[in-house]
Amino acid sequence: MGIFDKFFKNASSESKFVYTPKSEQEAWVAILYACAGAEGNVSDVEIEKISSVVVLKTLFNPYKTQLVPTLFKPVIDAFKQVGSKALIDSSAPLIADENKATLFCLVFDLLLADGTLGEGEKEIAEYLIEKLNLDSGIAEKIIEVLLIKNKYAVVIRG
Q1: How far is CA 111 from CA 31, 77, 122, 132, 154, in A?
Q2: 41-64: per-residue pLDDT in tens?
Q3: CA-atom Rg of the chain in angstroms
Q4: Residue 96 burial by Cβ neighbours in a 10 Å radius (0-12, 13-18, 19+)
Q5: CA dihedral 40, 80, 36, 94 (to 10 degrees)
Q6: What is the pTM of this model?
């Protein structure tokens, strides 16, 4: 232990950013945003898709009048601080079992939104399957169906 550790040890441990979603709805937005940002940026098309999920899913009905401040702002701020995997780590436990397959389907569709499926996107999809404890057979079926649906529009990189 160096002389400065005595003075600065607590300050550095206190400055670590921790994100915890306040609801399952915020956890959905966090996971969708984290996966969209898996390769470093979130495109306008991906933001539109996330927004349409929030508008269309009945799960979000209580939040429809306060979407941006209540759900998106804390997620975007947290993403900048901790990145995709940490955002998923803190959000996955809040997803109800009956919603996990639906969320993964929406995430994978989101990953295909720009017409490419990169290595980072494949990696984040696998990570999400693990963190949601999603049955691999269900995940494979979702992937298969969405790849067939988009077969002429998707380029798989990596």
Answers
A1: 12, 21, 9, 17, 10
A2: 888 888 888 988 888 888 888 766
A3: 17
A4: exposed
A5: 150
A6: 0.84
